[in-house]
Amino acid sequence: MPLSEEQRLNMKKRRQKILDTAVHLFATEGYEGTTIKKIAEAAEISFGNVFTYFKDKEQLFIASVVEPLEAISDQILDFNEHAEDPVAELLEMVKKHIKLFAGEQNYLTLVVQVVGQHQRFPEPFDHLDQFHDKWRNKIGRLIESGQEKGLLQKQEPIPVATLYTSLLIGIRLNNTDTRYSNMWDQYITPTFQLFGPIH
Amino acid sequence: MPLSEEQRLNMKKRRQKILDTAVHLFATEGYEGTTIKKIAEAAEISFGNVFTYFKDKEQLFIASVVEPLEAISDQILDFNEHAEDPVAELLEMVKKHIKLFAGEQNYLTLVVQVVGQHQRFPEPFDHLDQFHDKWRNKIGRLIESGQEKGLLQKQEPIPVATLYTSLLIGIRLNNTDTRYSNMWDQYITPTFQLFGPIH
Amino acid sequence: MPLSEEQRLNMKKRRQKILDTAVHLFATEGYEGTTIKKIAEAAEISFGNVFTYFKDKEQLFIASVVEPLEAISDQILDFNEHAEDPVAELLEMVKKHIKLFAGEQNYLTLVVQVVGQHQRFPEPFDHLDQFHDKWRNKIGRLIESGQEKGLLQKQEPIPVATLYTSLLIGIRLNNTDTRYSNMWDQYITPTFQLFGPIH
Amino acid sequence: MPLSEEQRLNMKKRRQKILDTAVHLFATEGYEGTTIKKIAEAAEISFGNVFTYFKDKEQLFIASVVEPLEAISDQILDFNEHAEDPVAELLEMVKKHIKLFAGEQNYLTLVVQVVGQHQRFPEPFDHLDQFHDKWRNKIGRLIESGQEKGLLQKQEPIPVATLYTSLLIGIRLNNTDTRYSNMWDQYITPTFQLFGPIH
DNA sequence: TATGAATGAGCGTTCATTCAT
DNA sequence: CATGAATGAACGCTCATTCAT
């Protein structure tokens, strides 16, 4: 007896609700601090039903790291490495990224945990690491293009790109509360300096 | 009959060994992932003996965060905010900090966890946060001095200082393995750009 | 999907079995001498399942004292304080109580422990104490009625009632084995003397 | 090297202090609730030193029950079973016993625990039981003598004696607080009725 | 598919006991 | 004899996972 369309949709929604709840709890309470019972209660489903959608706790954790990554990666990679004016493109990119990172506290806190304890979480880390490489390389190529056009100082592009991604995750980590939330705009210009723009 | 001098020394060594082991395990395996049993085995002492030196797991965790901080904070604050040449001082500071952060993977990974999950670990976070404020303000004053002497572009000093500390912790977080460890030197110049030096 | 009627019944039985087992073990082995493991084994259920029915060991202990009290208190209070012939009523009451106390070794041993260590067990003791007051006062009123009709010697009713309840719990405590179990009948007359009947 | 007289005396005092402390703690906190550490602290000696005087916790517990018994038993048995006037002797005995039991809350609370959980504490219970038999029999003979002289109603002496000792321990158990402490005097006459005096 | 009771391994912690000093 | 650090068994309790309904 195949499931009706409505059931299918319901299940999809339910799965997503579990996942959203799990991201939030894993981020704020950590892996062991988050119990299936807590997730079930917060997602307003029954305890045992969590296992209908995710094989076990580990798979749920992996999904919590990997699935939002797929959703956000397009936005992160949304800049043109072949732009006519690479410096203007870089500045726009910085603005976008800072805005994006400012708004994603929850998920990024989870990312920080996985990266910080990558030996414990090798599988989700691997996904993050691969994305990071891709991202860094794309930024590197944009930097290279700017240097070739004489608009940026000569520096090794990959380390600079690494510094940039490190800076972004670092700001997210450091701005633990809302005291400096209005500071995010002030971060743009100095961050941009990292790339060594020639005036 | 008080303890002999030798016993006293032995206990001090033992306590330190537990602490070092705990820092390492908490950093790589997280708070719940680290069990007292694992710590005892790695420190080569009996299970129950851990509790001779630390009241409970939480106190051991707090000590793991706070005690190394006291040891390292002097080195981190070792720069002169009233230097004649603030720009040269900043550059030297960047070099020192990068070297320091490159060498302290273990402890800093633990710091990342506490900061990333500060709601879970309010007490050790508070210590870190207070040190961070002190550090950031000292850097801010050095930046201000450079700006007053016309050697640095005009930017709000505190956000720049925040960016700088964020960058440092971010590099430490991102360089999870040794693949880029030879890159650390390449980080110096672009990081220094953050402060907006005028050539 | 709620539980079926059969399941519900099974759970009720299981809870009662745990409680009965707990009363027995707490009575014979004391609070700390009784472990959850022992209870689970004696009740033929798994260790963790005890916690499905009782939040923790303390709650199980409280339930072990309080729930049987509710069952037995009606029987204990089953005498008529307004009887036409208060002396005959007293004699009947004594017979009933002695019979009741003779048959309830297990639970009363537990009661003795709670009363004997009331500082350690304030919550269950409070329940017992309240019942004791009620019981003692009711006996006191029956004694008073007998005295007013000139059938009992003049004595303060409440101390006499206290002596009577003390005697009952004391017999239960002293008759630790079955050596004197056929003595219970012989206790009736002398116990009745306590009330000072006038012949 | 034999110990000096002073040392010997000191050790005797120390042993007694441990014992007194243990009686108090075992009585109020129970067997498992009492730790060697607590005893050592309360007795103001070092932890390990407790084991110099008592082989292990169990032996200390046994000594806590048995040694005070030896001290108190003479007082309890201090009545004349061959008295000229057995009824007057009984009345005096009742007065003494009630006074004695009123003043010995601590030790008697411990006795109640051992009797109530005699399966757990067979060795100290055996001592108490033997004393109890001796006591009860002596009272029985005094009762018998009173009956032979026609001063007491005919009743089986041993059950009456058992009732009497039960009553004493029962009062001690029931008077958990000081609310009725001034009642002790009021207990004498009705308790005495137990023996069936003929007026 | 949805539910939640049942299971037991594993945790942090306590504490009687041993033993080197 | 006095001390208290070292040991590890045993405790209460949690929770991921299973499974009957």
Automatic annotation (TrEMBL), chains A, B, C, D:
This protein's UniProt keywords: DNA-binding, Transcription, Transcription regulation
Pfam families cross-referenced by the UniProt entry: TetR_N
Domain HTH tetR-type: 12-72
InterPro entries: DNA-bd_HTH_TetR-type_CS, Homeodomain-like_sf, HTH-type_TetR-like_transc_reg, HTH_TetR, Tet_transcr_reg_TetR-rel_C_sf
Ranges of the DNA-binding region feature: 35-54
PANTHER family linked to this entry: HTH-TYPE TRANSCRIPTIONAL REGULATOR BETI (PTHR30055:SF234), HTH-TYPE TRANSCRIPTIONAL REGULATOR RUTR (PTHR30055)
Name this protein carries in UniProt: TetR/AcrR family transcriptional regulator
Organism of provenance: Ornithinibacillus salinisoli
